[in-house]
Amino acid sequence: MQDRPPLPPFTAASAKRKTRLAEDGWNSRDPEQVALAYTEDTLWRNRSEFLSGRAQVKQFLRRKWSRELDYRLVKEVWAFRGDRIAVRYAYEWRDEDGQWFRSFGSENWEFDANGLMRRRFACINDLSIEDHDRKLRWPLGPRPDDHPGLTDLGL
Question: What confidence tier does 2 reach under pLDDT thresholds 50, 70, 90?
Answer without folding.
Answer: confident
